[in-house]
Specification:
Blueprint (H helix, E strand, L loop, with lengths): L15 H10 L5 H5 L5 E4 L14 E18 L8 E12 L2 E8 L13 E11 L2 E5 L2 E5 L2 H7 L3 E4 L8 H15 L9 H6 L5 H9 L4 H32 L10 H9 L6 H15 L5 E6 L5 H13 L4 E5 L3 H11 L7 E4 L5 H12 L5 E4 L13 E6 L7 H8 L6 E6 L5 H7 L4 E5 L10 E5 L4 H13 L3 E5 L14 H10 L7 E4 L5 H12 L5 E4 L12 E7 L6 H8 L10 E5 L5 H12 L3 H12 L7 H4 L13 H17 L9 H10 L3 H8 L1
Parallel strand pairs: 4-6, 9-14, 9-15, 10-12, 10-13, 11-12, 13-14, 16-21, 17-19, 17-20, 18-19, 20-21
Antiparallel strand pairs: 1-8, 2-3, 2-5, 3-4, 5-6, 5-7
Helix pairs in contact: 6-7, 7-22, 8-10, 9-10, 19-20
Length: about 700
Amino acid sequence: MNTPQDTPIRYLKGIGPKRAKVFAQAGINTVEELFYYFPRRYEDRTNFVPVAGLKPGEIQTIRVKVLALGQHDSWRLPAGRQGRRRFNITEVAVGDNTGKVSCVWFNQPYLANYFKPGTEVILYGKVELYGVKLQMSNPEFEVLADEADARLAAGGLVPVYSLPAGFSQRSLRRLIKNALDKYLPRIKECLPYDIRKRNNLLNLARALINIHFPENPELQKEAYRRLSFEEFFLFQLPIILRKLKRKDKIGIAHKAEGELLKDYISRLPFQFTASQKKVIEEIKLDMASSSPMQRLLQGDVGSGKTVVAICASLMAIQGGYQVAFMAPTEILARQHYEKVKAEKKLNIKLLTSSLDKKEKEKIYRGIKEGKIDLVIGTHALLEEGVRFRKLGLVIIDEQHKFGVSQRALLSAKGANPDILIMTATPIPRTLAITLYGDLDASIINELPPDRLTVKTLLFEQSRKAEAYRLARQELKAGRQAYIIYPVIEESYALDIAGAKKMFSELKTGEFKDFKLGLIHGKLKQEEQDRVMLVFKSNKIDMLVSTTVLEVGIDIPNATCMIIEHAERFGLSQLHQLRGRVGRGSAESICLLISDGGTIQASGRLAAMIKYSDGFKIAEEDLKIRGPGEFFGRAQHGLSELKIADPLAQMQLLKRAREEVVKLLNLDERLENRQNILLKEKLAQRFPDYEKFMIAAG
């Protein structure tokens, strides 16, 4: 008997190979994955509003018949642009026995195929008043073909989905309902009964029915709670398992105190902050222990994480071990190398993909023979040719730019080496527990006393010239500047200027007296690094860029940053970009140019003006954007959280975590009879988890 897990979606009635490809693009390949394709919201259609009861300014739902259809073309002048653009208008008159209302859609001429006079439809949208006439602009709609459609589309809480291409709400709703009717009795319950009972959770079948087609609002909430708990539980299992496995492993007891470290600290031209001292002591305790260190080092932009990483490296090297230090880009790896290469007592090498084959092989030999103490590099460190004689410490900078498996691959090149993971993206506690529960956390929460706060100013588009004038003043004083755009090419849809186009305009216009450079993500990494090195050597005055600058470039002479269309950026992203200036002794400025846009965008910009503390910024960003978008789901495993929200459901997350710890303490290998289906589900959700567990420990 086929289970939902084993049944490809193409075998559902009305799908077939062609439509199956559309679903595959949305990550839906099996019937079970269709069950876990949750509604993005619900509409309460218990009572439809009669047309006579529509109120301007409110979002309302009506059930009406199509009375008449009309289409025509119109012309308009796009804001701030030359030339007019033609667009199509579809206008549909609908009504019930209480009255009539007009509905309008723009640039969707194909709608004429749906709105045939006499057809019954459900419409959902904002009601607006035009003169004395009520109108709904671009409302969501459903055409009711028969009573089966009407039952699914009315009469209670009705699910509304993000639609795969070629599907309507009606067709997707019917597909999911038919799939549930046929396959739900065969669904496998992965959560053991005692865990469900202790936490008062619905069984899986009832939860899935009520998340798609709720019997009532209370059961919809219970279904949401059950499925959120399941996601938290499955997400935490490999994290806690890694932590438990680590306790059983014998690592390296490093010589944390020694002359190499003492000599380095004595020659530093500054004093450590209290935070740095505390973190160094935490690392010393970890590295002196025979249990492998797994520590996450968080610190705001410019807080001094790199010097702490160097101290950790020296603790390993003075005991005869090697260190691998991996950064996401060549320019950042080179920057770390420049900071430490002067240590004469050490053999330090830089390994990047741009090196020629002969130079690479020379470094490979040095690493294998143990002659190289510290190798700093990019993804090139993961290549098969890199084999260490005695790897004792792995350092990963800006870890969110790497996948979890890459982190495991590098550590697997040694015998349980200590691992130090660094990030300049402050992580609120709620997300840190979710994402990095297997790591011990250290925080540098203060900046060096000589570090100046970057002054942040907001300019409306109409005052852009003032921002440019301030930037020219900095350039005339011999300093450098960045100007950041959210896109490479110009976007007519968003009506924003692209970096390429503005580079051409600026170098012949506002900044024609200065040398300009251009950098963006479509350039090859080697070209990006070349441009950055030219900028760093002060041969470019202003760098026009997209967000490729977000990660850790250190150029003290850059004192001004302009961020165009600032409303298009996330708050943490804006803060990371701002961190590229203010790295020298001169006062620096960050100039945001924006007309605000949405309420959320205005909130982000207000927070940028108000706060300079990265952790406070991160908390505000998490509130505004939610956990799914904080880092980018796919890169961080948050894609597994399709429905759960760590911020809104923190207590449920903690409860799931407690249950995971309790379960694994009793059955670490998930071999007990009641846990077999849970183990199957874990392997299904994380296909490489067994291999990963071996590598990551």
